[in-house]
Amino acid sequence: MLKVENLHAFYGKSHVLHGVHFDVNPGEIVALLGRNGSGRSTTAKAIMGMVDCTGSVQWKGQQSLGKKPYEIAHLGIGYVPENRDIFPKLTVHQNLQLGEKRSGQKGRWSFEDMYTMFPRLKERQHTEAGVLSGGEQQMLTLCRTLMGDPDLIIIDEPTEGLAPKIVELVAEYLQRLKDKGVSVLLIEQKLTIAMAISDRALVMGHGSIVFQGTPDSLRADAYTRKEWLEV
Amino acid sequence: MTAPTSVSAARPPEGARAPSGGSVGANGFALELRDLRKSFGKTEIIRGANLAVRPGERVAVIGPNGAGKSTLFNLVSGRFEPTSGEVLLHGQRINGKKPFEINRLGLSRSFQITNIFPKLSVFENLRCGVLWSLGYRYTFLKFLADLDDANDRAEELLHMIRLDRKRDVLAMNLTYAEQRALEIGITIAGGAGVILLDEPTAGMSKSETKRFIDLIKEVTVGKTLLTVEHDMGVVFGLADKIAVVVYGEVIAFDTPEKVRANAKVQEAYLGSHVADAQVGTH
Amino acid sequence: MEFFTIQLLNGISYGLLLFMLSSGLTLIFSMMGVLNFAHASFYMLGAYFAFTVAQFAGYFPALILAPLLVGVLGALFERLCLRRVHKYGHVAELLITFGLSFIILEMVQLVWGTSSVDYRVPALLSGPLFTLYGTQFPMYRGFMMLVALLMLVVIWLLLTRTRIGLVIQAALTHPETVEALGHNVPRVFMLVFGGGCALAALAGVIGGNAFVTEPGMAGAVGSVIFVVVVVGGMGSLAGAFVASLLIGVIQTFAVGIDTSLVSTLSTIGMEVGPDTFGYALWKLKISQIAPILPYLFLVLILVFRPKGLLGTREG
Amino acid sequence: APAKPAPAAKPAAPAAKAATAAAPAAASTPAKGGPLSGQTVRIAFMDPLSGPFANVGQNQLKSWQFAAEQLGNRAPSGVKFEVVGFDNKGSPQESLNTLKAATDQGFRYVVQGNGSGAGLAILDAVSKYNERNPGKELIYLNYAAVDPAMTNEKCDYWHFRLDADTSMKMEALTTFMKDQPQVKKVYLLNQNYSHGHQVAKYFKDGMKRKRPDVQIAGEDLHPIGQVKDFSPYVAKIKQSGADAIVTGNWGQDLTLLVKAMNDAGLKIPMYTYYAGVTGTPTALAAGGDSEVYVVAYGHANHTGELGKMGADFHKKFNDDYYTYATYNGIGLLNAAMAKAGSTEPSKVAKALEGMQVKSFAGDVTMRASDHQLQQSMFITKWQKAKKGEYSVENTGYTFVPIKQFDPYVSSTPTSCQMKRPSGA
Amino acid sequence: MPVPGATAAPIPAHRGHGYYEFRPLNIGRWILWSLFAIILGVAPMVWTSSLAHTMLSQMGIAIIVCLSYNMLLGQGGMLSFGHAVYSGLGSFFAIHALNLVSKGQWPIPVSLLPIIGGLAGMFFAVLLGWVTTKKAATPFAMITLGVGELVFAMSLMFPEFFGGEGGVSGNRVAGPKPFGITFGPQIQLYYLIAIYTFVCTGLMFAFTRTPLGRMLNAVRDNPERVEFVGYDTQKVRYIAFIIAAFFAGISGGLAALNFEIVTSEVVSGYRSGAYLLFTFLGGATFFFGPIIGGVLMVLAFVLLSEVTKAWLLYLGLVFLFMVMYAPGGIASLIMMNLRVASFGRLRELWVSYLALAATAFLALLGAAGMIEMVYHIKLNPALGPELKFLGTTLNAHSVDSWFGCAFVLLTGIGLFELSRRAFKRQWGEIQSDIEKEIKRREALA
Ligand SMILES: Nc1ncnc2c1ncn2[C@@H]1O[C@H](COP(=O)(O)OP(=O)(O)OP(=O)(O)O)[C@@H](O)[C@H]1O
Ligand SMILES: Nc1ncnc2c1ncn2[C@@H]1O[C@H](COP(=O)(O)OP(=O)(O)OP(=O)(O)O)[C@@H](O)[C@H]1O
Ligand SMILES: [Mg+2]
Ligand SMILES: [Mg+2]
């Protein structure tokens, strides 16, 4: 479904991704692991058309590289950025509204689904998102993207700042997404959870993919873990 | 134009850095919350929190998202004013005081979202943190370059947070982890005895977190430390005591072992196996 | 009573007029955070365009065409200039519109000359609408009030029935994220800026003949429209509306008040004479400062309520 | 303190450009030549040529250049005049810069009129310059700045005013109004600055003398240029029961007032100073019929040479010639230079004192005691132009003279204690 | 904050309290300041006309006021629309003081009157500043706008103090005359202004290196955090506001001496706007930017307007393009090139610069020719179609002139675009080389 080939990305003059190859199949959770600064977030941004890049990104057989972020979003890719870019002056509900690509569109998810998933958000529905607690903001970003009804969702560090119990909940929900036919590209720091729910794991190092395989094979691969994950 | 010198606020840095954890209040607590409450509009977020921290203690504050941990910090540090209840710093009541007044009384905090001076160099960032505590106030009759004590202290801090090499880099050009380190650096710069850290290791990888914990331990020797954390590895690695905040109340305040064993905490927060797993991987 | 009623009517109609002048600015300033110093210049362009169009096609086509033309110009300016400087922050945005206002002024003087043009109220709308206690209320004024109210409704619908307002406010802090959610942010910005300019021009079409169409007309409304927006509160359409009416009414009634501090002081038994220190200030009558009251109001509001009357943020 | 002689290092960039303005004099010029034939006097014109008041300044520059071209180069002196524009942007401080630029370029004659602020600045600076640079004196011809102070407490030997000052105009106006029996209650509405204060003050003084029965129904001062809507003032005027308005307002403060009165249907006469200034007639015409009187030293329907000049000016520039002071200005200089036998300002200034020349409305005299030109005054009325009357700004309206006063009527005393340079 | 010479010198390994350091950059600073002093001293000997002297005097005045404005804008992040209130009130008080001196009622030498102006500016800042600086950002900007409008309106209403339309005039030849210095001749006054300019610039620069100056930068960047390191942000802003007003007042006092007349225009919004525009144009992010801005302000108002009637149009266009392409002002352009120079790479660029300059000049020539023709047609129709333009004669009615100008313009633009692309590539390469070099040095350090 998503096929990334020979992707190079640049921030101005600095070359960050050096030929990334991987793909994501329908209904699959793929974990993208790696150390800080290895280029995982950049990969996500490159797919979304948010950084300068060359190479090829094919989405459902169509070249999406070179398109504008909003065009890519309309093709069905959702993106949850890593630093919780909630819109601080809008209410929680308005944040979610902005997730919809067209207002009032019918997709897999409704506002109610979101509020049942995280009751906390329902309580805070009419507060400015800027005053939400760190964790609440994290939940909000996730839901906001889901409102756009994507077929693939790229999530950058969704569990950061979440209480352990909520982390479990998120893991559970990611699996539910998968059941609904949504593919997930999960960028994670917390190995345990990533390994537990993903179908496949990718490890990134210095801007390229240095390992591809099942979580089990990664668990078995002590070298990769030591060299590229530092656990 | 120099601000009036109020003697009580001027703290000799050496004294503050000495392992005393700041002066001790009448009742022996460095920081005490008494039935603290805070409402935003109709919603009461902090519903009668009580906590008493002894000087030199390292306390981890944990609790579900939205429980009110950051809000507690905001109340204590003067960002918000409590609706009712009391905050005592070294036995002195500080509710309703402005952040800068509280800071001058010896309490300093870091932020959950990095909050530094992006267009100043690392060294300048630290020096800004140092100035007031050395009594320089609003003066414009002295050159910064001549303030030996401030410069030395800033250099020392620079070394402490291991950013020597980035001395003259603008803060906005630092990597995330470096910015977090700087955040801590500014927080401890003024030599406050009570330090509040809000999720200091968020967004860091395991190895960085580990390094960072060591750093925090090192720079807060002898101080009273309160830190919010979700990473149980950090919590158990750092804290002498744990305070559990749920729904705006402190439901438990005890040693790590006892807290972990506490069923109420398990139910409200830890969610059994993840906690174990995390602690395990550490 | 008679005086009161007439002044109330005057006050309300002046307030609505202020709202008409500033509605486009409210849209742009509140939504995009751009202090558009060229707003009044677009207002002037609207008047001049209408003057020219009206010569060929009549007033009512001009009422439509002039705002459209100016809207397109505004959108072009956003596209070619403003967009580039967005990343440098508010001061840069402000200065580029400053530069633009110079250019528009010079262009207007080149095309239409340095003097006023003979742009008249159409015959259909001239004459009194009704007469109250022997004072006429002009029909054109009624028309202006109507248009101001229409503008209010249209902007309100735009902001509440569409998500344009949300998109823009969100984009102020995290434009990239908004785009990643599937919204074409640059286009929305362009449309809003163009729309704001078109509103300014509409005010110009209507204000140009009610007042005077001359190169100085932009400068004349220049800063008072900022007062309206800021007093009302950034980000608040309702605020701007309330502020307009309030300023209109206060200013109008102040004209009728001939008391000064001297007279107030003397009623409480303090004698202030020409030798008293600052006598010039004490003897100032309220009516004398009526037209600058909005600025006083602005300062007081900002000191005691920096968010403005109904505002939600401080800028 | 002798100033360093200033070698004009900067090339005179704009001077050359505008100098071409003086095209060969029109064929109709009577009596060509004179004793100083062949000499050229360059006059620096300093008024706003850009910015909000550019329209007025541009018109006045053209008027000066036109008058120089038409009236120069002929008897009695035969001197040719060249008028060069300097843009002072209406600002007193900028005027001082343009004055420096002009002196650097060797100009010895300065004309200015648009605004007493700039006028007083120039008056003061010229005085100081002449004191500090003996032998290189400048003459300042003021053609429109009407602050009475300039010929009273602040009067200066090197300053000559061609316009009538506020007090003189008010003298004429009150003399006219005293004979209007229907005027019983007057409302004074003025801009809150020195000019507005003066209009109000001189009106009250004059009326008290001439018609003590006339009441002041109300008096308002409003901040200059700040009022967008005059309807509250109109309501107040109406409530006061006034049957006439006297105002020194100009620009939009005047036009908006007239419009508001029309809108409210308040039909009472307005006595004004500045309804004739560029742009105002257009705005007045667009506002509909109203009863507006203007007091001035001239009007739109002169006949004779001035009338012809007006027609030619209109043909040439498609603009109105209303700064008739240019006619007197050039005439006075011409005569004074002939009398002095020189174009040297120190001599010309002396000759100008008490100089009498023929003008478009009888003789005018430059009063020696304060350098205020004594001249006839007119009250004109704004109305639809009949056939043969001059259509002001192509509006189809005109200002018709309804009363002319001889110079003595509007002559006001002066408190000037002129300090004359030794030997003058 | 990156001030020339402020850029990092490597820290000496041993930092003792002896402070006997040899910092190479201090030499650079000495040179810069000496150069500044020399320029101030020599300028009137190079430009000798009386217009030039008054312009140079005004430049000194403008430099002080723009620098003081930049204390607010560049260093404190406070966008003021009412700075002229303080310089202007300074002017008024100084001229009244001057008149008292003239009358012999005040025994103060004329040379100290600017300080009276400064104190007056300061006094009003103390009075009005507390409410003004309560907030930063938009509320601050709008309060200054409101206060500015109020003061300006008042200045016209109170002729008793502000002198009405004619303002207040004075004669600077007054009081004692040490060494025969009367300040009558412009040149004497110029040197007084030059001394004030030098000293004030020095003081304002010194201010940037003091604790308060630094905290002001911190308040600009992150006011919230400042509160948590013990400082009251409002107080920081307030004190800085007062100091800025003091210097503004000094410049106002000098202006009073220079013009010997003060009218209400000095407190007008136009003035404040001009300070803002030209401070920005000079460059608000660098200390020396406003110096350039001040010089340009005088050049624009006095010279440009004499050269062409279209000066406001040119000014508008300059702002448009500067904000778009050099938002850091001229100072930032200079600093960018200095940086390249310090890595020894400037030499490679001069061909490109030459090409850029030549082509830009060409384009400008064409554009200016057309603009001048339009203005000529509009303003001087009666003078015939011919006009002089930079030594040639254009005919506004002839196709040739228009075609010629258009041709020059288009050729200029075309060539400019070509050389711009080449330059951009080259510049990019140099920049990335420099980045690499910096990284390398960092790694070594
Ligand atoms: N805006 C930027 N400009 C320049 N360099 C950048 C920028 N953002 C990231 N980089 C650099 O690109 C590299 C990859 O960054 P990226 O954010 O993709 O890493 P990551 O794997 O997501 O790490 P993290 O765990 O910190 O999120 C890093 O070296 C980083 O310094
Ligand atoms: N200014 C405010 N106005 C309204 N509600 C607020 C405000 N500040 C905080 N809240 C609410 O108070 C609650 C507690 O927030 P707080 O940030 O203290 O949580 P937290 O315990 O730090 O959680 P996390 O671990 O997720 O950071 C949240 O629900 C938040 O939405
Ligand atoms: Mg990342
Ligand atoms: Mg929190």
UniProtKB/TrEMBL annotation, chain A:
Protein's UniProt keywords contain Nucleotide-binding: yes
Q: Please list the GO terms describing molecular function.
A: ATP binding; ATP hydrolysis activity; branched-chain amino acid transmembrane transporter activity
What Gene3D superfamilies does this protein map onto? P-loop containing nucleotide triphosphate hydrolases (3.40.50.300)
Q: Which UniProt keywords apply?
A: Amino-acid transport, ATP-binding, Cell membrane, Membrane, Nucleotide-binding, Transport
Q: Name a biological process GO annotation.
A: L-amino acid transport
Instruction: Give the matching InterPro entries.
Output: AAA+_ATPase, ABC_transporter-like_ATP-bd, ABC_transporter-like_CS, BCAA_Transport_ATP-bd_LivF, P-loop_NTPase
Classification via Pfam families = ABC_tran (PF00005)
Can you give the residue ranges of the ABC transporter domain? 2-231
* UniProt xrefs under PANTHER family: ABC TRANSPORTER ATP-BINDING PROTEIN, HIGH-AFFINITY BRANCHED-CHAIN AMINO ACID TRANSPORT ATP-BINDING PROTEIN LIVF
What family classification does the UniProt entry report for this protein?
A: Belongs to the ABC transporter superfamily.
Q: What is this protein called?
A: ABC transporter ATP-binding protein
UniProtKB/TrEMBL annotation, chain B:
Q: Which UniProt keywords apply?
A: ATP-binding, Cell membrane, Membrane, Nucleotide-binding, Transport
Q: Which Pfam families match?
A: ABC_tran (PF00005), BCA_ABC_TP_C (PF12399)
Entries under InterPro entries matching the protein: AAA+_ATPase, ABC_AA/LPS_Transport, ABC_transporter-like_ATP-bd, BCA_ABC_TP_C, P-loop_NTPase
Gene Ontology CC, one term: plasma membrane
Which portions of the sequence form the region Disordered?
1-22
Q: What's the domain of life for this entry?
A: Bacteria
Q: Which GO terms describe its molecular function?
A: ATP binding; ATP hydrolysis activity
Q: Which SMART domains match?
A: AAA
Positions of the ABC transporter domain? 31-272
Recorded hits in PANTHER family, A to Z, give: ABC TRANSPORTER ATP-BINDING PROTEIN, CONSERVED COMPONENT OF ABC TRANSPORTER FOR NATURAL AMINO ACIDS-RELATED
Protein name (record): ABC transporter ATP-binding protein
Organism annotation: Ramlibacter algicola
UniProtKB/TrEMBL annotation, chain C:
The UniProt entry's sequence similarity note says: Belongs to the binding-protein-dependent transport system permease family. LivHM subfamily.
How does this chain sit within the bilayer?
A: Multi-pass membrane protein
Q: What is this protein called?
A: Branched-chain amino acid ABC transporter permease
Transmembrane segment boundaries: 12-35, 64-82, 94-112, 139-159, 188-211, 217-238, 245-266, 286-304
Q: Name one GO biological process term.
A: amino acid transport
Source species, domain of life: Bacteria
Query: Where found in the cell?
Result: Cell membrane
Species per Swiss-Prot/TrEMBL record? Ramlibacter algicola
For whether the record's keyword set contains Transmembrane, the answer is yes
The keyword Lyase appears for this protein: no
An example Gene Ontology molecular-function term: transmembrane transporter activity
What keywords does the record list, in alphabetical order? Amino-acid transport, Cell membrane, Membrane, Transmembrane, Transmembrane helix, Transport
Principal place of residence: membrane
Q: What Gene Ontology cellular component terms go with this record? A: plasma membrane
UniProtKB/TrEMBL annotation, chain E:
Which UniProt keywords are present, listed alphabetically?
Cell membrane, Membrane, Transmembrane, Transmembrane helix
Q: Where in or outside the cell is it found?
A: Cell membrane
Xref: InterPro entries: ABC_transp_permease (IPR001851), LivM-like (IPR043428)
List the protein's name.
Answer: Branched-chain amino acid ABC transporter permease
Give the species: Ramlibacter algicola
CDD domains assigned = TM_PBP1_LivM_like
| Gene Ontology MF annotations | branched-chain amino acid transmembrane transporter activity
GO cellular component, alphabetical, reads: plasma membrane
Q: How does it sit in the membrane?
A: Multi-pass membrane protein
The regions listed as transmembrane in this protein's record are: 30-48, 55-72, 110-131, 137-158, 189-207, 238-262, 274-305, 311-338, 350-371
Q: Report the principal subcellular site.
A: membrane
Q: Does the keyword Chaperone apply?
A: no
